[in-house]
Amino acid sequence: MNIRFFALASASVLALGVVGAQAADLTYEPAPVAAAAPAAFNWTGFYLGVHAGAAITDFDYSSPDNDFPGFSDDNTGFLGGVQAGYNWQFDNIVVGLQTDFAYTSAKVSLNGFDGEGLEQKLEWLGSTTARIGYAFDNLLVYGKGGVAYGQSKLELSAIGLSADDSKWHTGWTAGVGAEYAFTQNITGLVEYNYVDLGSQDYFNGAVSSDLTSNVIKAGLNYKF
């Protein structure tokens, strides 16, 4: 009886030891957590930026009184300035408003054989436009259109004398572009715009000047 009891007790202790050892070998490993997908870029918000490029400008002249035949000249000048705007995004559609203002160096100089000369410079160029585009996450392609304006100075010289007159031109603009978000705050853009600034009369109507320009530019925006 004692031998049988001793054998049963020994077997029980041995079984408990084996089970305990196996349990000690088990370690708890939590299930891996799936990494959250990066949030899609949202274009809604206010932004400020800078841009630079080229203004290929055509200067057309005529005389309201037909004192001389019409003529034209063109020039490619540097363009650089700032822009500000606000976008609203609805699913993949992005609409917005933007105003930009830029310095330009586009000018023409015409000299006659008798010492007469003409020089005209497009000094500033700006626009206020509406934009509408389609967003492929952080890539936005868009079209735009609106009002364009700029200041131009025309200088005439003859027999050693010169005079100048400055006018503001207003007209319209339309263009296309693409903008890419490098981060949640920094975006870059490339853009083409056709600008028609209309005609203005200089020197009390002696000369009429019509200005159009093809603007190609690249820029950076900071989105708030």
Automatic annotation (TrEMBL):
It is found in: Cell outer membrane. Keywords: Cell outer membrane, Membrane, Signal. The keyword Signal applies. Transmembrane segments: none annotated. Residues 33-224 form the Outer membrane protein beta-barrel domain. Residues 1-23 form the signal peptide. Belongs to the Omp25/RopB family. PANTHER family: BLL7405 PROTEIN. This is Outer membrane immunogenic protein. The lineage of its organism: Bacteria, Pseudomonadati, Pseudomonadota, Alphaproteobacteria, Hyphomicrobiales.
